[in-house]
TrEMBL record, chain A:
One of its GO terms (cellular component) is lysosomal membrane. Its main location: membrane. InterPro entries: TMEM9/TMEM9B. It comes from the Eukaryota. The chain crosses the membrane at residues 113-135. It is found in: Membrane. This is TMEM9 protein. The keyword Plastid does not apply. Residues 1-43 form the signal peptide. The keyword Protease does not apply. Belongs to the TMEM9 family. Keywords: Membrane, Signal, Transmembrane, Transmembrane helix.
UniProtKB/TrEMBL annotation, chain B:
The chain crosses the membrane at residues 115-135, 192-217, 250-267, 273-289, 301-325, 375-394, 414-431, 486-507, 513-532. This is Chloride channel protein. It holds the Pfam family CBS. The lineage of its organism: Eukaryota, Metazoa, Chordata, Craniata, Vertebrata. CDD domains: CBS_pair_voltage-gated_CLC_euk_bac (cd04591), ClC_3_like (cd03684). The keyword Ion transport applies.
């Protein structure tokens, strides 16, 4: 046994233990964002995602026109894209000088994925809000929730003490109780924030 | 300032302290038994400053054995102690470096510790860039949703819907797949009824989006409203606002920012993007111990994250770093400069790979022309600067007045109704005018655009003379009827935007300021540019034009005037200097226009500063009463420290704790009866010689913990802060040693120190409080709040408006 070994595991395990709860949500967030990043990385260029767009202005008695064609970047010029050519052969060069051709690409997959992610998050938030407003007060006992409302003059010290000592206090046994405890804490936090911003106008007026 | 260094390093001069006191002739009874000998430090081990005071040899386990959880952390709405945080970080770093020689694991640990900063910057850049891409694409889509829907796939906005189809030259927007609401419902898009239906749908969608935004903000994260930059400035100067940079605030801010921008309100997304990026920075800090535990290091990361936020908003990494340096950060060490630049680059690169605008551009209004300008055009540019300064001062005054009314009267009790009414007014007024119906970014993009042959918008409808067209270069032409229509429509749009933004900024939805200010400036600039262009065309024989603008030449570029106007207005409101010019020239991709931009920015700043000293963010900080000590202003009054310190003449004497003669009960009584955030510790009440300073929070946590965990601690136990317990009869209960939470090197000044120096000390070191001594005895205390109140009093402002502790 080399000297470092007996210290290796306690150090690593305490580091991981400290990390787990706080890191979990952040790791989840990072993972979610990696899912957002991967579609553009893997997006294969489907044929409808690239184009060469040539804008040709009015020339003599020919009106202006826009041409789109699905060509690669090296073929993106007036001669390949403008079909049928509205001017006779000797005028082609003068006409093409006026036209401006640009190569553009986009990723429809990215757009679709992002919009769907966005709409699902909005939908989930709306559902959660509906749940909190309508369903939650019915299934929970009222006193646990209205407690913070009564203790408005609560001593700052006691509250800070409670938040400081709760991590080291008695741990809730089941996952459900822990989730409920976290939710209650979050609700209290949001209520505090709401009081600060909306009622007392102490911040963000 | 060098007191710590003196204590630590002066082991050799062991009698210098006593010598100095004798020379000064003080008639104190300097008995060594009374207080600690000046150089009481543990030999051999590391005696960490204020955390974990170990003695004996340092072992691996010492590194893990931490002080009580909660000691060394801060309460909400309190200021951090920069000095303590920085020295804690230095201790930690010293510990890791000294241990890295012991084993391979420790070496790897030290390397990864050094590398963790860069890894964190990389992650912040990635996350900020992806969120910005999400916001851009969603906002683009939802803005177009007010007008119609794409049948080929509802997730396409107007431009992407018509991407594949050959549109006509004059009607570039029409394609069969995109149906406006009246086309969808009625089947046709022409006629009065269709117009009314479109109008109605526009207003309904706008109301729906903004209501949803304000309900989400109110229900889930009330801190997500507003711009965020004033609060971030305060946080970066050392204030703690718990939850302001949390997960829920991040999610809600991202979602509601898209909704607010899409609802057509006169607001932008740049300020909230800085908040979003800082939230990302704060959340990712939790992955690394080095940044999670140390508030000062975390603020360095937040400065870099703010730079990344501006970088993705404008596609300007350098401008972002300079914005963070100039506007947002308080302490910006040089190491942070390089890391901020890295984070900003990574964020810009990530956003570019997501490609929200389809042509590898990061911002919608990228300028691509490089036409030259003439020196005589500086006159209209300076005029634009003056306009920008005047508008900036007017906007700040009126917005602050409106926000103050919202804060103090009944208007503030109905936030949801307020958002509803403002959105309704904005939507109803905006729809008839095509320039206010389009999103503000699109408007700016169109105004920045230089008219070429290929443009067919109304603004470019000049009278074309085809015989004289040579290639792509268009000369100055007479304005056609389209241009005249566009001019008066733009003038109406200008008036509307000037007034509606005053009521929009500061509402309870995420709202930014950059885009509306740039829009106002761009409209004014374009109007002036077209006016100058027509003047030059019709009067090309005047003396001022004949030299450089002959007939048939292309000399005036109205797009450039729009750009200069946008920079002037933005500078007038925010009072940015270098960062503004750099952002604008990164937007244009060239250095040709630096001189006009600088001329306009400087003029607007001077004019605005002559009217009112503060920028919009500082004005909001003052309105909310945040404890932000302005770092740029000079303190020019001749007051002394004893004029500001507490207790004043008629107040009860300073509440102190003695170093070894108070019981637990006494200390608890003091804590319950007073609300101070810290107490000085003295040798004894008679001598009032200073030992150190202890924080209220640490005291409470330690006493509670001792009562629970340590046996024998009762209300009559004596608390001692010395190294060795005081001699007491053996029948007394066991004593509680609290030396580890005592700050042994509080900063002191004498009572005759001028306040200029005291304010300078507070600013440069980031102190929370400073003790005042007289002839070596403790006299009083000056806190940051006292300094702020004093400054406010001397500036004839209301000193009671400083709210927080």
């Amino acid at each position: 046994l080399y000297p470092g070994r007996e210290f290796l595991f306690p150090q690593a395990s305490t580091m991981f233990a400290r990390c787990t709860r706080k890191c979990a949500s952040s790791v989840l967030l990072v993972a979610l964002l990696c899912c957002v990043l991967s579609p553009p990385a893997q997006a294969s260029k489907s044929s409808e995602d690239i184009r060469c767009k040539c804008i040709c202005p009015p020339y003599r008695n020919i009106s202006g026109h826009i041409y789109n064609k699905n060509v690669s970047q090296k073929d993106c010029n007036c001669l390949h894209v403008v079909e049928p050519m509205p001017v006779p052969g000797n005028d082609v060069e003068a006409y093409c000088l006026l036209c401006e051709c640009k190569y553009e690409e986009r990723s429809t997959t990215t757009i679709k994925v992002i919009i769907i992610i966005y709409l699902s998050v909005v939908g989930a938030l709306l559902l959660y809000m509906a749940f909190l407003v309508l369903v939650d007060p019915l299934i929970r006992k009222p006193d646990a929730y209205t407690q913070p409302l009564r203790n408005e003059e609560e001593n700052e010290d006691a509250r800070s003490l409670a938040t400081a000592l709760t991590p080291s206090g008695a741990r809730a046994n089941t996952v459900l109780e822990r989730v409920e405890g976290a939710q209650q804490r979050w609700k209290r936090q949001v209520q505090e924030q709401r009081k600060t911003v909306f009622d007392r106008h102490k911040m963000l007026s | 300032m060098d007191q710590k260094g003196y204590r630590r390093g002066s082991f050799q001069s062991s009698t210098s302290d006593e010598d100095m006191l004798e020379i000064a002739g003080a008639s104190l009874d300097f008995s060594v038994a009374d207080d600690d000998p000046p150089l009481d430090r543990e030999m051999g081990g590391f005696s960490s400053y204020n955390g974990g005071g170990m003695n004996g040899t340092s072992t691996m386990m010492d590194f893990l054995e931490e002080p009580l959880p909660g000691v060394g952390t801060y309460e909400d709405f309190n200021t951090i102690d920069w000095v303590r945080e920085k020295s804690r970080d230095r201790d930690r770093h010293r510990e890791i470096t000294s241990r890295s020689k012991e084993s391979t694991w420790a070496l790897i640990h030290s390397v990864s510790d050094a590398f963790s900063g860069w890894l964190l910057m990389l992650l912040i850049g990635l996350l900020a860039g992806s969120l910005a891409g999400l916001i851009d694409i969603s906002a683009h889509w939802m803005t177009d949703l007010k007008e119609g829907v794409c049948l080929a796939g509802f997730w396409f906005n107007h431009e992407h819907c018509c991407w594949k189809y050959n549109t006509t030259f004059t009607d570039r927007d029409k394609c069969p797949e995109w149906k406006s609401w009246s086309q969808l419902i009625l089947g046709h898009g022409e006629g009065a009824f269709a117009y009314i239906l479109n109008y109605l749908m526009y207003v309904i969608w706008a109301l729906l989006f903004s209501l949803l935004a304000v309900l989400l903000v109110k229900g889930f994260a009330p801190y997500a409203c507003g711009s965020g930059i004033p609060e971030i400035k305060t946080i970066l100067s050392g204030f703690i606002i718990r939850g302001y940079l949390g997960k829920w605030t991040l999610i809600i801010k991202t979602i509601t920012l898209v909704l607010a921008v899409s609802s057509g309100l006169s607001l932008g997304k740049e300020g909230p993007l800085v908040h979003v990026a800082c939230c990302c920075g704060n959340i990712l800090c939790h992955l690394f111990t080095k940044y999670r535990k140390n508030e000062a290091k975390r603020r360095e990361v937040l400065s870099a994250a703010a730079a990344a936020g501006v970088s993705v908003a404008f596609g300007a990494p350098i401008g972002g770093v300079l914005f963070s340096l100039e506007e947002v950060s308080y302490y910006f060490p040089l190491k942070t400069l390089w890391r901020s630049f890295f984070a900003a680059l990574v964020a810009a690169f990530t956003l570019r790979s997501i490609n929200p605008f389809g042509n590898s551009r990061l911002v919608l209004f990228y300028v691509e022309f490089h036409m030259p300008w003439h020196l005589l055009e500086l006159v209209p540019f300076i005029l634009l600067g003056i306009f920008g300064g005047l508008w900036g001062a007017f906007f700040i005054r009126s917005n602050i007045a409106w926000c103050r009314r919202r804060k103090t009267t009944k208007l503030g009790k109905y936030p949801v109704l307020e958002v509803f009414v403002v959105t309704a007014i904005t939507a109803i007024l905006a729809f008839p005018n095509e320039y206010t119906r389009m999103s503000t970014s699109e408007l700016i993009s169109e105004l920045f655009n230089d008219c070429g042959i290929l443009d067919s918008s109304k603004l470019c409808e000049y009278v074309n003379d085809f015989n004289s067209t040579k290639g792509d270069d268009l000369p100055d032409r007479a304005a056609g009827p389209g241009v005249y229509t566009a001019m008066w429509q733009l003038a109406l749009a200008l008036i509307m935007k000037v007034f509606i933004t005053i009521f929009t900024f500061g509402m309870k939805v995420p709202s930014g300021l950059f885009i509306p200010s740039m829009a106002v400036g761009a409209i004014a600039g374009r109007l002036l540019g077209v006016a100058v262009e027509q003047l030059a065309y019709y009067h090309h024989d005047w003396a001022i034009f004949s030299g450089w603008c002959s007939q048939g030449a292309d000399c005036i570029t109205p797009g450039l005037y729009a750009m200069v106007g946008a920079a002037a207005c933005l500078g007038g409101v925010t009072r940015m200097t270098v960062s503004l010019v750099v952002i604008m020239f990164e937007l244009t991709g060239g250095l040709e226009y630096i001189v006009p931009l600088m001329a306009a920015a400087m003029t607007s700043k001077w004019v605005a500063d002559a009217i009112g000293r503060e920028g919009i963010y500082d004005a909001h900080i003052r309105l909310n009463g945040y404890p932000f000590l302005e770092a740029k202003e000079e303190f020019s009054h001749k007051t002394l420290a004893m004029d500001v310190m507490r207790p004043r003449r008629n107040d009860p004497p300073l509440t102190v704790i003695t170093q070894d003669s108070m019981t637990v009960e006494d200390v608890e009584t003091i804590i319950n009866e007073t609300t101070y955030s810290g107490y000085p510790v003295v040798v004894s009440r008679e001598s009032q010689r200073l030992v150190g300073f202890v924080l209220r929070r640490d005291l409470i946590i330690s006493i509670e913990n001792a009562r629970k965990k340590q046996d024998g601690i009762v209300s009559t136990s004596v608390i001692y802060f010395t190294d060795h317990s005081p001699p007491l009869p053996p029948s007394s209960p066991s004593m509680l040693k609290l030396r580890s939470i005592l700050d042994l090197s509080p900063f002191t000044v004498t009572d005759q120190t001028p306040m200029e120096i005291v304010v300078d000390i507070f600013r440069k070191l980031g102190l929370r409080q400073c003790l005042v001594t007289h002839n070596g005895k403790l006299l009083g205390i000056i806190t940051k709040k006292d300094v702020l109140k004093h400054i406010a009093q001397l500036a004839n402002q209301d000193p009671d408006s400083i709210l927080f502790n």
